[in-house]
Amino acid sequence: xxxxxxxxxDGDNIPSKHIKEMMExxxxxxNPTIKRIYGDWTKPHLSKWKNVLLENAVTPIxxxxxxxxxxxxxxxxxxxxxxxxxxxxxxxxxLVSSDSDFTRLATRLREAGMKVYGLGEKKTPNxxxxxxxxxxxxxxxxxxxxxEEQTTESKKAQKAEVDAVTPKILQLIKSTISDVCDDDGxxxxxxxxxxxxxxxxxxxxxNFGFQKLTPFIKSIKQLEIEERENPKGRSKLMYVRIRx
Length: 244
Known about the structure:
The structure is a single chain. The chain has 244 residues and is α/β, with parallel strands linked by helices. Helix content is 39%, strand content 20%. It has 2 domains: 4-146, 5'-nuclease (Rossmann fold); 167-242, 2-Layer Sandwich (Nucleotidyltransferase, domain 5). α8 crosses α9 (189-199). The model has no long low-confidence stretch (mean pLDDT 87).
């Protein structure tokens, strides 16, 4: 049975530019049966969202700001999330925001047995990131057509956004391989990827400029990859270990 997801978007906190890519990414994890975006639609800064909502079947929820300096949008989104949770109509949530105010909401939803995916910009505070099962940075959700249209300068800027494999990241990968490897040091790459996600929800090969985990691991000289036959099918099984 396909996972039913409630997609709740903080319109005040997320740019509309890559809504198509965001929805395509969300579809990888389940069927978005509820799609809502929250904001004060009388404000001019949300005008760009209005043009893309119908195309992506996202329902706008009007939330007026009651007082200056207070974010009523956050409160409305949190209240709706709890109503949806108790309705038992979904199996998980996708919280689209870069705001740490949703940290407790993500934690509470997971306590209730919900799968929680987060989408936000790289400026998202770490407490919200680690409160989710998986967190995806919006910056990596660039379509191929967008890439082709980029100028040389913008391509250079995008390349600069790619994360470097720091000693801390390398140690995380090595320790994870050690956690799931056999007596010979070999670990099934699928198990490594799954445990990396649990340890660090925002871990994603695309952050480092690779579409998949396998080519990313292959690019790290301190690791070696071995391809094995799959006794249960035609696909190959990938194993990894730390080079001696």
